[in-house]
Write a structure and sequence with these properties.
This protein is an alpha/beta fold. The chain has 4 domains: 84 residues, Glutaredoxin (3-Layer(aba) Sandwich), CATH 3.40.30; 198 residues, NADH-ubiquinone oxidoreductase 51kDa subunit (Rossmann fold); 84 residues, Ubiquitin-like (UB roll), CATH 3.10.20.600; 94 residues, de novo design (two linked rop proteins) (Up-down Bundle). It is 42% helix and 16% strand. The model has no long low-confidence stretch (mean pLDDT 96). The structure holds flavin mononucleotide. The site of flavin mononucleotide has 22 residues, from strand 11 and helix 20. Flavin mononucleotide (FMN) binds next to strand 11 and helix 20.
Length: 502
Amino acid sequence: MTISRLYLSNDTSSLAAGAGRLAECLREGKDVQLIHTSSRGAFYLEPMIERDGPTGRVAWCNVTPDELPKIIAGTGGTPIESIPYLAKQTRYTFSNFGITDPLALDEYQARGGFKGLEAALAIAPGAIIQELTVSRLRGRGGAAFPVWSKWQAAQQAESDEKYVVVNADEGDAGTYCDRMVMEGDPFRLIEGMLICAHAIGATKGYIYCRQEYPAAAWAIRKAIQKADEAELLELNGRTFSIEIVMGAGSYVCGEETALLESLEGRRGVVRAKPPYPAVAGLYGRPTIVSNVLTFATVPNILAKGGAWHAALGTERSRGTIALQIGGRVKQPGLVEIPFGMTLRQVLEAFGGGMAAGSRFKAVQVGGPLGSLFPESKLDIPICYDAFAEAGAILGHGGIVVYDQETDMVALARHFMAFTADESCGKCTPCRIGSVRGREILDLVQSGCAKADDLVLLADLGETMKTASLCALGGRAAYPVLTAIEHFPDEFRNKLSAFSRQS
Ligand SMILES: Cc1cc2nc3c(=O)[nH]c(=O)nc-3n(C[C@H](O)[C@H](O)[C@H](O)COP(=O)(O)O)c2cc1C
């Protein structure tokens, strides 16, 4: 009897698309060897089954149980490299997705895993930071701060203890690449943490993971265990220990200082900066708080060299970016490409255009604090500076597309209400401003607002922008003000009849 070796993702997104049912059916058959991988991130093709073909993997997409006999027999299928969505990407950080068993350490190593750590351990900490300087890597969590600069500050700080903290809170709506790294390639994150620990001299690491990610926490815990058993957590004679701490679902706990408060067991309230965490972070000690993706990008930089990374992307945004396309597009999913394509090109090449029956109305990039843009803004190149110039943020790379059914006033109200709910309450502009902003938008929504209320809203937004302690208050007005700027008629039409005449 020939055994068919089939690859099927069992990560959260694939299970949501029906991969679990397929796995159950396949396990019933005796002529199948089922290998679990992570998703490749082309969600519109899930559930997807692959097998080895003469020149590479062959895939069956949107598989239903009745198609399994055909797949087991090897009939049909599409060569993976001929799927444009995947072929057009430049995958470095996500290069193992869909290919390896996420918890098979030998498979990770066979594909170059732990080569970055090996290179890092062979050089002095200062040389690691030099490599990061050359790479021009900027943090992928949202603020886009140069990574070398944080690491250097932590390295140079005198302390009895230093910490490495992974920000795995991933609170932005429409983002999921951190989850995918933890579920799909957890050794890459561990390797990045180890390189950082070696560079700054830390012996303890934490992964602050949002509570909605139980599968990610499970996978990373298993991977830590395996790395420990393989003695990979030994750094020049010292053991680096890693602990996973689950957050309790507060958006502001993704902000690095609120995260540290939460990690220390207190309510997640933002700290005033300076001092910055790199100098005085967890328990007042030098701490690198960085995003999952930032750590996951580091191993390749050490293995291939900083210049390799700096050669990708645009002048001030080097390397690749993880875009997570969602909303009313035909092809939602994860994309890794060098910085520089325009939003329009990305939505066409990867999003596949609008979903059936939908017409484009607006797009929001960068989560709930991101600006709302109309079609005329789609030619902005995807890089930090072009977005900053346009008054927008790339954030964590989430792109959510809205169609003609979207009520922009209701959407703007939703985002202001979100800030009012999630504000930590420490600074007045955010705590009070978001509530007042929501109230004004309620007035607009109910047809009771006057034209002056929109002026007041803009004024309030300015105060929140300039006087808030962190970007939650600082950016809360952007979705609202950009919605008013680009869709003024929707707001004007909802003003009270008296106000419209006057
Ligand atoms: C309200 C708010 C929420 C945030 N949420 C996250 C988050 O979920 N994940 C993240 O990595 N960074 C988040 N950040 C950014 C962090 O404060 C910090 O800049 C980041 O963890 C630094 O990592 P990086 O250097 O790798 O970008 C948030 C910031 C704010 C103001």
